Amino acid sequence: MTVDPPIRLGRAADAAAIAALSRELIEEGLPWTWQPARVLRALQHPETNVAVVDAGDELVGFGIMEYLDTDAYLVLLAVRRSDQRKGRGSALLRWLETAARAAGAERVRLDARRDNAAARSFYNEHGYHEIAIQEGGYHGAVDRIRLEKWLRA
């Protein structure tokens, strides 16, 4: 049996670490749009959850979920490379999906880079389906794949 790592809501003090992980793992090769100030705004927004997982004193993963009318949008999800394949990303995703269900969301939508086969496989393994491709969707440089998962029948 696998035990999920402790997950907590993000704090303002986490903004710089979250931004750095986004830059390294999600926005690599693209303009850096999730800088600390933007992460801080997400942390403070009433319609957004930022969940984090720590290993010791260090933040090793995070997820940002926005809640819309009947959908939730997974804005970002990342786990430090050295901590991948240890269940931390899966635990973060389950936590955020549970929060989305509690908020009344019927489905979760997200976008992933077309060139990120590992992320696409991760989401497919968790029940997400690829529904659209937007060529050049990330700053005209990288294709975007839209995925979704229905939470309710």
Brief description of this entry?
This protein has a domain at about 5-110: Aminopeptidase (3-Layer(aba) Sandwich).
Description:
With 153 residues, this protein is an alpha+beta fold. The chain has a domain of 103 residues: Aminopeptidase (3-Layer(aba) Sandwich). Strands 1-2-3-4-5-7-6 form a seven-stranded mixed beta sheet, with helices on both faces. A hairpin with a 3-residue loop joins β6 and β7. α1 packs across α2. The longest helix is centred in the middle third of the chain and has 15 residues. The protein is globular. The protein starts with 6 loop residues before the first strand and ends with a strand. Keywords: Acyltransferase, Transferase. This is GNAT family N-acetyltransferase. GO terms for molecular function: acyltransferase activity, transferring groups other than amino-acyl groups.
- Radius of gyration of CA atoms, rounded to a whole number: 15 Å
Structural class: alpha+beta
The main sheet comes to:
7 strands, mixed
The run of helices and strands is EHHEEEHEHEE
The DSSP helix count reads: 4
CATH architecture of one domain: 3-Layer(aba) Sandwich
Which shape, going by the Cα principal axes? globular
* Helical residues, percent: 25-40%
Q: Whole-number average pLDDT?
A: 92
Strand order of the largest sheet: 1-2-3-4-5-7-6
Tally of DSSP β-strands? 7
CATH fold-level name of one domain: Aminopeptidase
Give the percentage of residues in beta strands: 35-45%
Low-pLDDT stretches are none
**Which CATH first-tier class of one domain would you pick?**
Alpha Beta
The CATH H-level homologous superfamily of one domain = Gcn5-related N-acetyltransferase (GNAT)
Distance between the termini: 28 Å
Pfam families: Acetyltransf_1
Protein name: GNAT family N-acetyltransferase
Keywords: Acyltransferase, Transferase
GO molecular function: acyltransferase activity, transferring groups other than amino-acyl groups
